[in-house]
C-alpha cells in the first residue's frame, strides 16, 4: 500500500468513532477528517469500528483492509484486537466514545501529552456555551477537554468546508446544473412540482403529511433516500419491498426512492429541494447550509430529553420570524417529533412560505459568520500549545 507523503511539522490527529446510529457519527467524523487534511494540512487517522456503515458514505472503502487511505485520510479499522500504536498530537474521542486502554497508556507515555478532546453532540442549549473548552476527566498526565459544536458564539461552530456557500449559490442559480444532477439520480422533476427530500427515522405522523401532499392542488415530488422511514412510506402506499428506483404516484404526490448517496451528492440533493426533512446531526447541519426551509427529526433519547434540545434550537432558529410564522414552523417540528397528525400544521406552514424561505437563507448566512468546526478545533490546539 503506497504511503502518503509526510510534510515537515505536520501535526498528527487521531479521530475515534464508534458507529452508534448508522450514519450520524461516521458522517460527522468523516467530514471533519477530510477537512482537516484538505484545508489545514493535518495528518489524520480515522479509527472506525464499523466499516460497513462507513461504506455507504464512502463506497471506495475496502472492508477487508485494516488500514487504507481515502481522500487523504488514513482510515483504520478499530477492532477489539487492538495493536500497539503511537498516540497522535491531537486525539478526538467523537461523541464520548471510550478509547482503547492501550491507546490511553500510549497517550500518557508521550514526552509531551497530546491534546485530548471529547467532541460532543450538537446542541443549542444555553449550558453548552459555559461548558465548551472546559477540562473534563484526566488520565494520568493527560487532560481531556470538552469541545461542543454549536450555533452561538462561545461554541465550536458547525462543520462547513471552505467555499461551501459560494458553491451552493452557484448551483442553485444554475437550473441546467440542477437538472443534470437530478437526472443523474433518475429524477425527472415534473413542471411546477415542489421538490421535497425526506430522510427521517420511523414516524407515525408521516401518513397524515403524505395525505395532505397527495390532496394538494400543487404537485409534489417527494425524494426518499433509502433509510428507516421507508417502512412508513410502504404502509402508506400499500406496497412492500420499496427500493432505490421505485416511483409511485398518488394524486398530486409522486414518491421516488433514491439510493443512499455520497455526502457531496446529498448536499446537492438538499440544494435542489424546496424543503428538506432531515434527521440526526449531519444531515441537519447540511440542510441549514442549503438555505431552504427544513424539518428536523431529532434522535430520540430516554426520558424525552431530546425534546429540550429541540426547543432550544427552535428558540434560536425562530428569532426574527413574525409570531404567526414562528408558531407555524415550531408547531410543525413539534408535531413531527411527537409523531402526531401533520395536516393542519403543514397547511399553516405553507401560508408563511415566502417568509420562511427568506429566513432560512438569513439563518444560513448568520451561522456562516462563525468559524467553522474544523478551524475552531485547529485554533483550540494552537492556543493550547
Automatic annotation (TrEMBL):
It catalyses: dTDP-beta-L-rhamnose + L-arginyl-[protein] = N(omega)-(alpha-L-rhamnosyl)-L-arginyl-[protein] + dTDP + H(+). This is Protein-arginine rhamnosyltransferase. Keywords: Elongation factor, Glycosyltransferase, Protein biosynthesis, Transferase. Protein-arginine rhamnosyltransferase that catalyzes the transfer of a single rhamnose to elongation factor P (EF-P) on 'Lys-32', a modification required for EF-P-dependent rescue of polyproline stalled ribosomes. Coiled coil: none annotated. GO terms for molecular function: translation elongation factor activity. Belongs to the glycosyltransferase 104 family. Signal peptide: none annotated. Pfam families: EarP. It comes from the Bacteria. InterPro entries: EarP. Transmembrane segments: none annotated.
Amino acid at each position: 500500500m503506497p504511503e502518503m507523503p509526510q510534510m515537515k511539522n505536520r501535526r498528527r490527529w487521531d479521530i475515534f468513532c464508534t458507529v452508534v446510529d448508522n450514519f450520524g457519527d461516521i458522517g460527522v467524523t468523516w467530514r471533519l477528517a477530510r477537512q482537516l487534511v484538505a484545508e489545514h494540512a493535518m495528518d489524520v487517522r480515522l479509527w472506525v469500528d464499523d466499516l460497513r456503515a462507513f461504506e455507504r458514505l464512502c463506497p471506495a472503502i475496502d472492508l477487508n483492509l485494516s488500514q487504507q487511505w481515502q481522500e487523504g485520510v488514513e482510515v483504520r479499522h478499530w477492532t477489539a484486537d487492538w495493536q500497539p500504536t503511537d498516540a497522535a498530537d491531537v486525539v478526538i474521542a467523537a461523541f464520548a466514545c471510550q478509547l482503547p486502554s492501550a491507546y490511553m497508556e500510549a497517550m500518557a507515555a508521550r514526552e509531551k501529552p497530546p491534546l485530548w478532546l471529547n467532541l460532543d453532540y450538537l446542541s443549542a442549549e444555553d449550558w453548552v456555551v459555559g461548558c465548551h473548552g472546559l477540562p473534563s476527566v484526566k488520565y494520568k498526565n493527560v487532560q481531556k477537554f470538552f469541545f461542543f459544536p454549536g450555533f452561538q458564539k462561545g461554541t465550536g461552530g458547525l462543520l462547513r468546508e471552505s467555499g461551501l456557500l459560494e458553491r451552493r449559490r452557484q448551483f442553485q442559480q444554475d437550473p441546467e446544473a440542477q437538472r443534470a444532477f437530478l437526472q443523474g439520480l433518475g429524477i425527472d422533476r415534473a413542471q411546477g412540482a415542489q421538490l421535497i427530500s425526506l430522510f427521517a427515522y420511523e414516524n407515525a405522523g408521516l401518513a397524515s403529511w403524505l395525505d395532505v401532499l397527495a390532496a394538494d392542488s400543487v404537485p409534489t415530488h417527494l425524494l426518499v433516500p433509502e433509510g428507516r422511514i421507508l417502512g412508513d412510506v410502504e404502509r402508506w402506499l400499500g406496497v412492500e419491498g420499496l427500493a432505490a428506483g421505485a416511483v409511485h404516484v398518488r394524486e398530486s404526490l409522486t414518491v421516488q426512492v433514491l439510493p443512499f448517496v455520497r455526502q457531496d451528492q446529498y448536499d446537492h440533493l438538499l440544494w435542489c429541494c424546496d424543503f428538506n426533512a432531515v434527521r440526526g446531526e449531519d444531515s441537519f447541519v447540511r440542510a441549514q447550509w442549503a438555505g431552504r426551509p427544513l424539518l428536523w427529526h431529532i434522535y430520540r433519547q430516554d426520558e424525552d430529553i431530546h425534546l429540550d434540545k429541540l426547543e432550544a434550537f427552535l428558540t434560536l432558529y425562530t428569532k426574527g420570524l413574525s409570531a404567526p410564522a414562528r408558531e407555524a414552523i415550531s408547531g410543525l417540528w413539534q408535531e413531527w417529533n411527537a409523531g402526531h397528525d401533520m395536516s393542519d400544521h403543514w397547511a399553516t406552514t405553507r401560508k408563511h412560505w415566502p417568509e420562511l424561505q427568506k429566513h432560512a437563507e438569513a439563518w444560513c448566512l448568520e451561522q456562516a459568520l462563525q468559524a467553522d468546526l474544523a478551524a475552531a478545533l485547529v485554533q483550540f490546539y494552537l492556543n493550547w500549545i
